[in-house]
Design brief:
Layout (H helix, E strand, L loop, with lengths): L4 E9 L4 H15 L2 E5 L3 E3 L9 E10 L3 H14 L16 E7 L4 E2 L4 E2 L8 H11 L11 H7 L7 E2 L18 E6 L5 H12 L1 E4 L8 H7 L1 H25 L7 E4 L5 H9 L2 H15 L7 E6 L2 H11 L9 H16 L5 E6 L9 H11 L1
Parallel strand pairs: 9-11, 9-12, 10-11, 12-13
Antiparallel strand pairs: 1-4, 1-5, 2-4, 3-4, 3-8, 6-7
Helix pairs in contact: 1-2, 3-4, 6-7, 7-8, 7-9, 8-9, 8-11
Length: 374
């Protein structure tokens, strides 16, 4: 999963219900492209370069894992859906909506279809003034000046008037900051890490990822389960206890909550499947001695996927030691989790069937998952 790029997008409308057009564009950008972090004030500005009705203009900060060319294509599709027909031969014209990429992180792009930073942005007050509201310290990667500096020297003398109406940020419908600690769980290949990572990026959360890749006993277990099961489960328990205890005790004042891709109780679920009866009896005693001192999540999300889909995901991510996991092992894990969750009263549980969803590649599916959580 690609790390999100910070985009700055300029929006304008001078045809039809201008404010409604801007809000519709903001909503569509959120639904199709990525998370909207900030939206500037809306300004009324005269048409630039041609005679027409005044525009309403604003800018927004967008986080998206999509590449710039894909973002451009999505913006053009949104324009078309909102009634704009681009006519490159007639020059400037009135438009229901105009969407432009101003910055794509620090990237400099010069292709036939896309120029970033936008080549005219430094000459246009209707871009610089709203951009200054939300990104005054962002530096132009070619001109090497911050936005406020570009605004000060801009020779465009257009008079812009702020209007007393704010656009609504659709991301505000999701408020996970009411939880201090959210755990995302699921079977092998269910998408726990992907969802935790996306939520951390989108909602300013501290991210805790299980360090399973560093466990030297895991590949050995998949080759000889009977021999290495107890050693593996003990090493996982010790590592999970230490990681959760350390990370939850370290406050991060700049994050709104904590999200992890596991809960320590998974140790008991997996050990019940992998250990023989005597080993599990001993393990359970040790587990509960430790578990009573560990912070519990306030929201526990369980991602359910059917066995066929889990096997497809496991093969897709290509970890050698996972390629021969049996269906019945995955089914026992699912059953173990569901039995555990049926008895839980200490925290809020959300079980979500994502067998027919791809929330990593499909933003609509991702937003569907978020809606299931609120």
């Amino acid at each position: 999963m690609l790390k999100p790029i910070t985009y700055h997008i300029a929006l304008g409308s001078n045809k039809g219900n201008k404010l409604k057009n801007l809000q519709a564009a903001v909503d569509a950008i959120y639904e199709r492209i990525g998370n909207i972090k900030l939206i500037s004030k809306v300004y009324q500005s005269p048409a630039f370069g041609f005679k027409s009705d005044d525009f309403l203009n604003c800018c927004l900060v967008l986080y998206s894992s999509l590449e710039p060319q894909t973002v451009l294509e999505s913006l053009l599709a949104i324009e078309a859906d909102l009634g704009r027909t681009r006519n490159v031969k007639t020059g400037y014209e009135a438009r229901t909506i105009d969407l432009d990429i101003v910055f794509a992180g620090n990237q400099i792009i010069n292709t036939e279809s896309l120029q970033v930073p936008h080549p005219e942005m430094a000459k246009r007050r209707f871009v610089l003034l709203p951009l200054n509201n939300i990104a005054s310290k962002v530096k132009h990667p070619k001109l090497n000046k911050e936005i406020w500096e570009l605004l000060e020297v801009c020779q465009d003398n257009s008079v812009l008037k702020p209007i007393n109406v704010w656009l609504k940020n659709p991301s505000k419908r999701f408020d996970f900051s009411k939880f201090n600690y959210i755990a995302i769980e699921g079977n092998i290949g269910a998408g726990k890490t992907s969802l935790a990572t996306k939520m951390a990026h989108e909602f300013n959360a501290k991210l805790i990822l299980e360090r399973f890749a560093d466990n030297p006993f895991l590949p050995k277990f998949y080759k000889d389960a009977n021999r290495y099961a107890f050693t593996l489960e003990m090493s996982f328990l010790a590592d999970r206890y230490q990681q959760i205890s350390d990370d939850l005790s370290q406050l991060d004042l700049f994050k709104d909550f904590v999200v992890s891709d596991y809960d320590v109780f998974k140790s008991l679920i997996f050990s019940k499947i992998t250990l023989n009866e005597d080993e599990f009896s001993l393990y359970r005693k040790l587990f509960y001695l430790i578990h009573k001192d560990i912070a519990k999540p306030e929201l526990y999300i369980y991602l359910y996927q059917n066995t066929k889909r889990l096997q497809e995901n496991i093969k897709k991510r290509g970890r050698d030691y996972e390629q021969h996991i049996a269906d019945d092992y995955l089914e026992k894990i699912n059953a173990g989790y569901l039995d555990f969750l049926k008895t839980q009263k200490d925290f809020k549980v959300k079980i979500i069937d994502v067998s027919d969803r791809d929330f990593v590649e499909n933003r609509a599916d991702y937003l569907w998952v978020l809606n299931e959580l609120v």
